[in-house]
Amino acid sequence: MGRPQRRAFDLIENLEVLRGVPARSSDLPPTTFELRAAETLMAIARAMAPTLDEVREIAARHGIAGSDPELLRNAAVADLVAQRFPYRQPDRAACRAYYDAHPQEFRGPDLYEGGEILVGGDVTDREWRGEAYGRAERIIAMLHYDRRVFGDLLITSAANSRDRGGRIGPVACGAWESEVAAPFFSLKTGEVFPLPVPSRQGFHVLLMERIRSGQLRGFAEVESDVVRRLAARSRLAAAWRHLELLATNHA
C-alpha cells in the first residue's frame, strides 16, 4: 500500500475536522489526492457495511439467535461482520510496537521435563493390582526422600520385561498423548505425583524435574503474524463501531 493510500485510511475518521481546522505548522497537511482517496475508502466501507437486516441474516446463517440489541452486542456477530470491512495494512513500526508491548503473545510453549517409572501388569488382576500399587507407593516414598535415586529406581524397580519407563520430554503441555499426561502436567518443578497413576499398562510413578519457560520468538520470525493480528484488530474495531451505530439508529 502506497503512502497516499495509507494516509487516506488515517484520514477517514477525521475528514470533516481536517477540512475545517487549519493545520499546525508541525502537521503535514493532506493533499487533494489523499482527501479524495479517503472519501473513496469511506464510500467503500459504507457499501460493504451490512445493514441491520444483513446482520440478522449473518447471525441466522451461523445459528446465532437473539433480539436486535442482543445481536448488535454479540462478540461472535462482530467477528463475522468484521470480515466485511477493508483494513489498513499496518506499517513495520506499528508491528514492532505491538510486538514489544505484547511479548507474552509471541513466546513458544513452556517445555516440561521429567520421568516415569511404570510398574507394568494386568490392572484387571486384583491380586497383582494390590501388590503393584503398594510397590509403586514405596517408590514414591523413596523419591520424596531423594529424587536423585530416580535412575537407580528405574532399573531396580523393573521386576520383569513388562515394566517400562524413562525420561519424559522436553514436551509442551498438550503435545504428549498419554493416559497419564494430565497428572504429569499438573506437577510443579521438583514434585512427585503423590499417588500411583493407573493406566491400561499398569501403575505410573511421575516426577517433574524442570519446566523451561517458552522462548520469545524473534520479531522477524513473527512479523507476518503481527501484521495479521493488527489487521484483524482494525477490522474488528470497525465492526464494533458499525454495530454501535446500528444500535443507536434503531433504538
From TrEMBL:
- Top EC class of this enzyme: isomerase
The question of whether Isomerase is a record keyword is answered with yes
Give every PpiC domain span.
109-210
One annotated GO molecular function is: isomerase activity
Q: Could you list this entry's UniProt keywords, alphabetically sorted.
A: Isomerase, Rotamase
Which Pfam families does the record match to this protein? Answer: Rotamase_2
Give me the reactions it catalyses. Answer: [protein]-peptidylproline (omega=180) = [protein]-peptidylproline (omega=0)
This entry's Enzyme Commission designation comes to: 5.2.1.8
**Family per UniProt?**
Belongs to the PpiC/parvulin rotamase family.
Q: What name appears for this protein in its UniProt entry? A: Parvulin-like PPIase
